[in-house]
Specification:
Elements (H helix, E strand, L loop, with lengths): L1 H4 L4 E5 L4 E6 L15 E5 L2 E7 L1 H22 L5 H14 L11 E8 L5 E6 L5 E3 L2 E4 L3 H11 L6 H12 L10 E6 L6 E2 L2 H36 L20
Antiparallel strand pairs: 1-2, 1-8, 2-9, 3-4, 4-5, 5-6, 6-7, 9-10
């Protein structure tokens, strides 16, 4: 769990017709190819996964999940459900908590996708092997702060744009603003996972900053109006009493 708590913050939000995954990008080394550092991965044409924790452990678990997705297709002649693959991942994680000579996987995952009925689903697994479905959730560094924000602001059946904005707002609670620090993946029915470009993410961030500026201006105006009302209702202060006059002194004789 310590490895997960130190990992990149990730947010998942389930909307009416989409599932949004938002991730904090770690700063890459100067000579590193950023295309080889991915924490949002495709499992199947209708499934994707984001993780927080040890990348090496995630690579092993993701490869196992991809193999299971293809094996299910070959055997059942249909894609596996989101619940099935998340339960499979959780089962492997739980198995490694009680295996001799092996340590638990140091990652938490969120699995997003659609079933055959085109209904969106978001599942989370943890290193202990727990598997549960969520409407919105967060994993990684400062996940409690992000989850509290989601609990306050989540609304059921969000349109896709609103789901993206909510995920970004929650992530920006703990991440520096700017599209270069953020990665957004969008899952929609009948379409493969799509990563939003820096320009698209930048436009969403600008909308959030504009909303914050408008809210701050409205709050300041409200405070000024309340102060003006308080000043008008306060009784006028009495005028100070005139100072007593001193009698003029007589000149000496």
């Amino acid at each position: 769990m310590e490895a997960v708590k130190k990992g990149s913050t990730a947010v998942g939000v389930r909307g009416q017709n989409a599932v949004v995954l938002a991730l904090e990008k770690q700063e890459a080394k100067k000579l590193q190819d950023t295309r080889t550092v991915r924490k949002i991965c495709v499992l199947d044409s209708h499934l994707c996964l984001v993780f927080a924790g040890l990348s090496a452990d995630a690579r092993v678990l993701i490869n196992k999940a991809r193999m299971e997705c293809q094996s299910f297709r070959l055997t059942m002649d249909e894609p596996c459900s989101v619940e099935y693959i998340s339960r499979y991942i959780a089962g492997i994680q739980q198995k490694y908590t009680q295996s001799g000579g092996a340590r638990p996987f140091g990652i938490s995952t969120m699995v997003a996708g659609f079933d055959l009925d085109n209904q969106p689903h978001l599942y989370m697994t943890d290193p202990g092997g727990t598997n549960s479905e969520w409407k919105a959730n967060a994993i990684g560094r400062n996940y409690t702060t992000v989850r509290e924000f989601l609990e306050k602001h989540y609304v059921a059946n969000l349109p896709t744009d609103d789901a993206v904005l909510l995920a970004l707002k929650a992530l920006l609670e703990v991440v520096d603003s700017g599209p270069k620090n953020l990665e957004i993946a969008l899952m929609e029915p009948g379409r493969p996972m799509r990563l939003l470009s820096d320009e698209e993410v930048g436009r969403y961030v600008e909308r959030i900053e504009a909303e914050k500026a408008a809210a701050a201006a409205a709050q300041a105006e409200k405070q000024r109006a309340l102060q003006a009302q308080a000043d008008a209702a306060a009784p006028a202060a009495p005028a100070p009493a005139p100072a007593p006059t001193q009698p003029a002194s007589e000149p000496p004789k």
